Amino acid sequence: MSIQRPLIHPRDEIMQTMSRIYGYRMTTTSGGNLSIREENGDIWISPARVDKGNLTRNDIVCVKADGSTEGLHPPSSEFPFHKAIYAARPDIRAIVHAHPVALVAFSICHAAPNTRLFHQTHSISGNVGFAPYACPGSEELGQSIAATFAQGCDSVILENHGVVVGSDSLASAFERFEAFEFAGKTSIKANQLGTVRYLDDAQLKQAANRSVKLPTFEPGIATEQERELRLKLCQFLKRGCRQRLLISTEGSFSARLGDDSYLITPTQKDRESLSIDDLVLVKDGHSETGKKPSRAALAHQAIYAKHPDVQAIVFAHPVNGTAFSVTDVKFDTRTIPESYVFLLDVAHVPYGVQYQNDGSIADHVSPKGPAAILENDGVLVTGSSILDAFDRLEVLESTAEAVINAKAIGDVSAMSQSVIDELRSAFNLG
């Protein structure tokens, strides 16, 4: 087996990852730092006192194994704890430290989020730890954090400070950071709704063991329709990630090509960075050679087979919609006209239905209910086009957020049945 060689320069990888973290509003202009440790002991790290929203590749600093530095700026003031973590955990090759609001909230409550909200946050976040406070930039802070990592922790809340995660590459460290932050945000939102439900070992195992292995085929020349759908899917995937409707490690989006074929996202690839070539064509139950379709491929296939009008499907994990999925609180669309007209009645799907290969997930969506809340696994949305499915996903998340926010103000007042009847008549909803 050949060893994969990293081809992107550490300067560029740190710059691009920090740009993404800042763009997601997961850190501030002055907060946070990233590093990569190379085989020879050199550590590349973001600089001290440079705008995180405007880093260039030349701003990144290299701290040599002998302690000397190369770069236009001094290294981050937090370099001591990066160095201490690398010394304590030789398996760690990259570190992300930032101050995302949700995890800062946990840090000032001296707590850490329970990642068993859904399977991906639990598996990607790894072992969770908590490091006692010490002054930022001090050797004492480095010792505190390194000691927590030395215990086998991968995602560590820093008391009254923020969060640090480590992994074997910066790409996987970012995914870990994002999943951990997602768990924190979802937990906070869900606690505003009601009692939060967590997954047990058997449920986590059920999700982890699901797989799909389709026979393969060699596709012919792509049609104009296929090329157009590939482009649109990639555009909306990027938009969904940047709007935090999708997360990089989980979720699937597909578009129907014909009665027996569809395009779908691949498994185990960053959703935001997908290209048109990464998308997988599935035809007659066969997957195009050399690619692995999403593990949800059979669920998409079952929905297309049962519902001829469905042209696009998305399984996603927007924070507020997922907050409903981890509680028993009913998701009610009868809040404003747009919510009801776009979503109608949203079903609540018991845990694990979407993992079964019996097609039963298709029974939980219909023209009268194009979207569903998946217990401890986000949401499912269907549409008459990629745009329609994405629009409904946006409306569902906006509705969920509005309801959660409304609970801080007073009692949520749903529209009356007479208003619903008027909407059904005005918009020909049947």
Automatic annotation (TrEMBL):
Domain of life: Bacteria
Keyword terms: Lyase, Metal-binding
Pfam families: Aldolase_II
Database matches in Gene3D superfamilies: Class II aldolase/adducin N-terminal domain
Entry keyword Isomerase: no
Domain Class II aldolase/adducin N-terminal: 12-188, 231-404
Record carries keyword Phosphoprotein: no
SMART domains: Aldolase_II
Coiled coil region boundaries: none
InterPro entries recorded: Aldolase_class_II_sugar_metab (IPR050197), Aldolase_II/adducin_N (IPR001303), Aldolase_II/adducin_N_sf (IPR036409)
Name this protein carries in UniProt: L-fuculose-phosphate aldolase
